[in-house]
Amino acid sequence: RTDYQRCNDYFCRPKNTNIRIKLPVVCFTWQIAMIILFGVFVRYDSESDAHWPETMIQNNITSNTENDFYYRYPSFQDVHVMIFVGFGFLMTFLKRYSFSAVGFNFLIASFGIQWALLMQGWFGSLDPSTGKILIGVENLINADFCVAGCLIAFGAVLGKVSPVQLLVMTLFGVTLFAVEEYIILELLHVKDAGGSMVIHAFGGYYGLTISRVLYRPRIHQSKHLQGSVYQSDVFAMIGTLFLWMFWPSFNSAIAYHGDGQHRAVINTYLCLAASVLTTVAISSLSQKTGKLDMVHIQNSTLAGGVALGTAAEFMVSPYGALIVGFLCGILSTMGYIFISPFLEKNLKIHDTCGIHNLHAMPGLIGGIVGAITAATANELDYGKQGLINTFGLTGKLQSRSPSTQGGYQAAGICVALAFGIVGGAIVGGILRLPIWGDPADENCYDDEVYWEVSTTDTQHLHYIL
Amino acid sequence: RTDYQRCNDYFCRPKNTNIRIKLPVVCFTWQIAMIILFGVFVRYDSESDAHWPETMIQNNITSNTENDFYYRYPSFQDVHVMIFVGFGFLMTFLKRYSFSAVGFNFLIASFGIQWALLMQGWFGSLDPSTGKILIGVENLINADFCVAGCLIAFGAVLGKVSPVQLLVMTLFGVTLFAVEEYIILELLHVKDAGGSMVIHAFGGYYGLTISRVLYRPRIHQSKHLQGSVYQSDVFAMIGTLFLWMFWPSFNSAIAYHGDGQHRAVINTYLCLAASVLTTVAISSLSQKTGKLDMVHIQNSTLAGGVALGTAAEFMVSPYGALIVGFLCGILSTMGYIFISPFLEKNLKIHDTCGIHNLHAMPGLIGGIVGAITAATANELDYGKQGLINTFGLTGKLQSRSPSTQGGYQAAGICVALAFGIVGGAIVGGILRLPIWGDPADENCYDDEVYWEVSTTDTQHLHYIL
Amino acid sequence: RTDYQRCNDYFCRPKNTNIRIKLPVVCFTWQIAMIILFGVFVRYDSESDAHWPETMIQNNITSNTENDFYYRYPSFQDVHVMIFVGFGFLMTFLKRYSFSAVGFNFLIASFGIQWALLMQGWFGSLDPSTGKILIGVENLINADFCVAGCLIAFGAVLGKVSPVQLLVMTLFGVTLFAVEEYIILELLHVKDAGGSMVIHAFGGYYGLTISRVLYRPRIHQSKHLQGSVYQSDVFAMIGTLFLWMFWPSFNSAIAYHGDGQHRAVINTYLCLAASVLTTVAISSLSQKTGKLDMVHIQNSTLAGGVALGTAAEFMVSPYGALIVGFLCGILSTMGYIFISPFLEKNLKIHDTCGIHNLHAMPGLIGGIVGAITAATANELDYGKQGLINTFGLTGKLQSRSPSTQGGYQAAGICVALAFGIVGGAIVGGILRLPIWGDPADENCYDDEVYWEVSTTDTQHLHYIL
Predict the structure, then answer these.
(1) DSSP reduced 3-state for C383
(2) Among the listed residues C11, C3, C139, C12, the one whose alpha carbon sits nearest the alpha carbon of residue C73
(3) What is the pLDDT of residue A6?
(4) Angle at A347 between CA A343 and CA A350, to 5 degrees
(5) What is the number of other CB atoms lying within 10 angstroms of the CB of residue A314?
(6) Which CA distances in Å does C328 have to C263, C335, C373?
(7) Could you say which of A170, B276, B277, B403 would form a disulfide bridge with C27 (CB–CB 3.0 to 4.6 Å)?
(8) Any CB–CB contact under 8 A between A326 and chain B?
(9) Pairing of strands A126-127, A132-135
(10) Can you tell me the distance from the alpha carbon of B9 to that of B346, in angstroms, rounded to the nearest whole number?
(11) Is C242 on the interface with B (CB under 8 A)?
C-alpha cells in the first residue's frame, strides 16, 4: 500500500468518540499546569493586595472609591454574564445539542480565562522588577474578552467537534489572541475597547478557517438534528437578550474612566436598538408571507454591538451610532440569507451559528468605522485633553496625528485578519488528527455522544421528529 | 348599499396577516426618521462628552467617581434587564406565543427607547442655548422607563394584535407618556421616581382602553391556545424573578444620590417580600384544595414594586413598606380571581396578562400612598435638608408645604389616568383600521401567524393539546 | 390499644395534602407578625435615612460616593439573583417539580429575608440608645446570606415536604443561623465573609439532619418522577450559571472596602474556574464511555465558590485559589458518585440535590482552608495595616496573633456543625408531626400535589415517561 493510502486510512478510520481517558487527561494536565504557572508568575496587583492601605498613603489616595474595582466591577459582572450565559445559551438553539452548547461553553471558557490571564499577563501586566504578573479586575475583564474570541470560533464548529478539540482550539486561540492583541493594542497603539478587530474579527475568521479545514462533505447525514425546536429557540433568546442588554458594558468595560465609559455605553445602547429594527425589517422581507425567522432575531440584532466595538468610546455622536446599527442589522441579516449558503456551497465553509454574519463581517465593519472616526477626530469635538485621553496619545505618541492614528487603526484590521486566518489554518490542521474523539458525520449535533441522556428523552425526541 | 354597510364591509373584511411590506416599511421609515432627528437634535451631555476633563476643572470636580455614570450605571443595567428579559419572558406563559412575546417585546422596546430619548429630551433635556438634547445615563434610564409603559399596554393585547399595531401603539404611547410625564413631574412638580402613576397607572389604563376598543366578541375561537403549558410557565418565571429582583433598582434608579437611592432600595425590597406571602395565601385560598395558581405567583408577587413606585424614596419606614406589600399582594391576586373575569364579561375588556391587577390598580394605589406619605412628611422625620432634597422643594417651590405637595401628588394620579384612558381610546380607534395585519379571531395567540415555525413543532403541539 | 399504637396511628394516618387553610394561615399570621415587629424595631440606618445630609456634615463626608450603598449595591443585586434565580432554577432539574422548585424557593426566601433582618438585627445592628434595629444595604445582603442557608437545606428535602413545612424549616433555620452567626462572627471574632462555615456548612448539615429525621423508607414509590428530562436539565443550568458567575460577588459582598472586596473577587473567580475542569474530568472518568453527567456539571462546578467562602478575602494568592478549586471539583463530583449513595443506603439520609457534596463538605473544607490561611498570615504578606483590616484585629483584639486567629477559625467550624446537626434534629422532629400537609410516598416530586397543572400537561408527561 502506498504512503497516501496509509495516510488516508489513518485519517479515515471509524470515529471513536469515547473520551474517557482523553478528556480527563487534558483537563487534569492543563489545570495542574495552570496551578504551577500561576504559582510561579501570578500575584495580586497593588489595588487588590492587602498592602493597598499603604499604597493609598503613598499615592495620596483619600478614598477607597478610587480603587479601580469600583469603576469596573459592575461592567465586569455584566461581561461575565455575556460569556457564560450569553454565549452559552445563544448556542442552545439546536434541538438536541443544548447540553453541549451550554456545558462545553462553560468548560472552555473556564480553562480559557486562566490561560488568558497568563498569556495577556506576560504581554501586558508584567512587573519588570520582579517578573511577576500583577492582576486586578481589569485583567479579569480582559481574560473574559480573550475567551470571547474562542467562543465565537466555537460557534462555527458547534456540533461537529469533541470537547477535547474545543479545549485544544481554546489553548491555541488564547495564545494567538494574546500575541495579536499585543501587536495591535501595544505595538501599533490601536484603540479597540470593545474588540471589533481584536475579538470579533479575529475570533470570527479563526473559527471560519478551522471550520473550512474540518469540512465534512457528508454532514447532511445528521441533517435531521441540525435545526431548532420551539423550546430550544426560546432558550436561545435568553442568550441573545443577555448579550444584547449587557453589550454596553462589554464595549465600555475597559474604556477610559469617566466620560469614556459613559459615552461607550450610550453609543452601544443606540447602535443595538437600531440593529433590531432593521433586522426585523429584512427578516420579514426575506419570506414570502413576511414571517420572521428566529435565526435572524437571535443573531443579527447583536451585530450593532460588534460593529461599534472599536468606536464606542469615540465621539461618533448618537446619530452616528444609529447609522452603524442601521447598516449592520441589514448586512448581518442578509448574510444569513445569502452569504452563509454561499460560503457552504462554494467555499466549503459550514458555519453552524453563522458567526460570519454576527462576528466576522461586523467586526471588519467595526474596524473600518473605528479607523474612519479616529482619522477624523479633532480638538473641536474632543477638546485638547479629551483627545489625549480618548486615544491615549501621551509620551512618545503625543505627536501622532488623528489621521495617522486612523492609518494604524486600519493596519490593526489586517493584523486581526491575518492571525485569524493563518492561525485557524494551522490549528485546523492539528484538529484534523484523528485522535480527538470527534463525532461521525451521522452523529453530529447530538448530545448523546458526549452526555448521559435518559432513554425516555431519546424516544420522545424520535417521536417528535 | 348604505354607508353603514360599506363601512362595515371595510372593517370586517377577511384578515390578511401578510406583513411582508407593512412591517419592513414601518421599521425602515421610522428608523431613518430616528437617525435624522438624532442628527439634528441629540448630542452627548457634559458628563459623557469628551470635554468632560475640562468640565471637571471648571466645576472643581476632583474625582471621576462624581460622574453620574458611576452613581446610576448599575441600576440602569438592572432596569434594562427588566425591560427586555423581565417583560419579555413574563409574557412567554402562553403555550404557543413565546416567540412573539419575547420577540415583539424586543422590537417595540428597541424602537421605543429611541423615540423616548427624543420626546423626553424635548421636554426635559433641551439645552436652551443650542436647541440640542443632551443625553447621559439618566436619559437612558428614563427612556427605558418610558418604554415600560408601552410594554405594560402590550400585556393587555398580547396575542391579539400584529407587530405593526404594536409599533403604532408604542409610537403614540411614548408620545403620550412624554407629555403626561412633563405635566406631572415638571409642571405639577410631583415626585414619582419609580413611576407608580407616570408608568404603571398610565400604561395600565392605556392598554386596557385599547383592549376595550379592539374587543373581539369571537375571541373564544382561539381559546385552545389561550393558556400555558408546563414549560412555558417555567419560562415565564424567568421574567417574574428578574422583574422582582431588580425592582429595587427600578424604584431607585433616578432617586436622589445617597440616602434617596439607598432608602428606595430598602423600601422596595421589603414591600416585594411581603407581596409574595400574601399572594401565596390568597392563591391557595382561592382553590378548593388549596393548590397554587402559577398566574398569581407570576404576577401578583410583583404588585408591591408597582405600589411603592411613588413613595419608595420617601420616609415610609420599613414597616410601612411591608404594609403596602401586604395589601397589594392580596388585592392583586383577588383582581385575577374576581376583577379580570368581571371586566371581560361586563365591560368587554379582555386583558391577556391581567395588567389591570399588576399595573393599573397597584399603580393607582401607589399614587395614593405617595400622596398620603408626601402630605404627612415633616422636618422631624426628614431633617430640614432631607425634606428639601427628597421633594426637590428649591427655588420658587421652597414655600410649598408637604400637605400642598400631597395635593399635587393626588392631582398627578388624575393626569396619568386621563392620559391613559383618553389616549388609549384614540389610539385604539386608529388600531381598528383594517390595515395593520392583525390576526383573525381563530388565529390569536399563535406564533405561526408571524413566525417561521417548523412543521414538526406544530404537529407536536396538536398532539399534546 | 397501647400508647405506642395510638402514637403510631397518629403519625401514620393517610396523608392529607390539602393546604387550603394551613398555608394561608401561616402566611398571613407570619406576615402580620413581621409588620408588627418591624413597626416596633426596624428603622433606617444613618446612610439610608433622610438625615444623611446632616450626617455627612457631622462626619466630614464630602461625597455621596462614600455612602455604603455605592460600595455594596452592585454586589447586593448579584447576591439577590443568586438567591432567587440561582437557587430557584438550580432545583428545577426534576422532571415534574419545577413549579415547586422555583415557587417555594421564592416563597421561603421572601419570608426568610424579613425574619433574618429582625434576627440578625437584634444580634448585630441594634442601636443601644433607642433599642431600634437600623438597617442599610449591608443588612439586606446579610439577610440574603442568611436565607441561603435555609435554601441549601431545602435542597436536601426537595420534593418530599410541603410548603408549610418549608416555612417552618425557614423560621427555625433563620433563628438558628442568627445565633450561630453571632457566636462565630461576634463572640469568637471569626472571619467568614462568604460564609463557608456560617452559611454552607450550617445549611448543609441542617438540611441533611432534617432529611434523616424525615426519612421515607418507601420513597422508591415515586422513583419515576425522581430524575430529569432534557428541558429541565437546561433550565437547571440557568441556576448553575447565575450562581457560578455571581459567586465572586457573594464572597466579596461584605468584605472590607477596597482591596478586600477586590481580592475576594479575584480569588473566587479563579477557584471556580479550576472547579469546572476537575469536575468535568471526574465526571467523564466515572462513566464507562466517558460521557458527562449533567448532575455533576450543574453542581460540582460550584464547589470552589463554597470552599473559598472563608478565605476569599485573605492573601491566599491566585495559585492557592486554583488549588482549592482543583480539589473541590474532584471531591464534590466524587461525592455525587460515591458518598450520596452511601449516605442513602447506610445512614438513611436521602439528599435530593446532593447538598452534602455541594455545600456541607465544601463548607467544611472552606472552614479548614480559612483556619490554615489565617494561622499563617503575617505582616510581610499583608502589611501592618492590611493585617489589621483583613482580620479586624482592633480594640481589645489587637493582641490576637494570626495563629490564635486560626484556632478560633477552627472553633467556628465546630459551632456551625453543632448548630446544623442539633438544630436539624430538633426541627426535623417538629416537621414529623402529621399536621403539615406533606405528600404521600407515591406523590413525592410531583407539582400536581400543590399546584394547578393542566390535564393535557399531565397526559403528556405520562406519555413521555
Answers:
(1) coil
(2) C139
(3) 74
(4) 55
(5) 28
(6) 20, 10, 17
(7) B277
(8) yes
(9) antiparallel
(10) 27
(11) no
Question: CB B317 to CB C34 under 8 A?
Answer: no
Looking at the DSSP assignment, which residues form a beta bridge with residue C149? Answer: none
Minimum distance, in Å, between the CA of residue C51 and any CA atom of chain A:
22
Could you tell me how many residues make up chain C? 465
Residues 174-203 of C with CB under 8 A from A: none
Amino acid at the residue C357:
N
Mean pLDDT of B217-222: 93
What residues of chain A, 251 to 270, have a C-beta less than 8 Å from chain B? Answer: 257-259, 261-263, 265-266, 269-270
Kindly write down the DSSP assignment for every residue of A51-111, as one continuous string.
Answer: THHHHHHHTT---GGGSHHHHHHHHHHHHHHIIIIIHHHHGGGSTT-HHHHHHHHHHHHHH
DSSP C290-321: --B-HHHHHHGGGHHHHHTTTTTTS---HHHH
pLDDT per residue over A131-156, tens digit each? 999 999 999 999 999 999 999 999 99
Q: Which helix (H) or strand (E) holds B62?
A: none
A107 close contact with B: CB closer than 8 A: no
Q: What is the ipTM of this complex?
A: 0.96
What distances in angstroms separate CA C31 from CA B279, C37, C38, one per listed residue? 11, 10, 10
How many angstroms separate the CA atoms of C176 and C119, rounded?
Answer: 9
Q: B362-390: string of b/e by CB count within 10 Å (b at 16+)?
A: bbbbbbbbbbebbbebeeebbbebbbbbb
Residues of chain A with pLDDT under 70: 1, 11-12, 459-465
Radius of gyration (C-alpha) of chain B in whole angstroms: 23
Give the residue among A135, A160, A140 at the shortest CA–CA distance from A74: A140
Neighbour-count burial of A341, counting CB atoms closer than 10 A to its CB (0-12 exposed, 13-18 middle, 19+ buried)? exposed
Note the pTM of the prediction, 2 decimals: 0.97
State how far the Cα of B245 lies from the Cα of B242, in Å rounded to an integer. 5
| Burial class (CB within 10 angstroms; exposed 0-12, middle 13-18, buried 19+) of A216 | middle
- Segment A7-19, tens digit of pLDDT: 777 766 778 899 9
Cα separation, C455 vs C447, in Å, equals: 12
CA–CA gap between residue A58 and residue C359 (Å, rounded):
42
Among C27, C113, C452, the residue with its CB nearest the CB of B287 is: C452
Residue that has been written with the C-alpha cell 458628563 in this structure: B47
Q: What are the grid coordinates assigned to C28, written together?
A: 398571613
Partner B contacted by A74 (CB < 8 A) = yes
Say which amino acid occupies B85.
Answer: V
Confirm if A208 and A360 have CB atoms less than 8 A apart: yes
Say how far residue A388 (Cα) sits from the centre of its chain.
Answer: 29
Q: Which three cell numbers stand for residue B175?
A: 408620545
Instruction: Judge contact between C247 and A112, C-beta under 8 A.
Output: no
Q: Cβ distance A358 to A275 under 8 Å?
A: no
Q: Helix (H, G, I), strand (E, B), or coil: what is residue A136?
A: coil
Residue A133, beta-bridge partner list: A42, A126
Alpha carbon distance B368, B410 (integer Å): 7
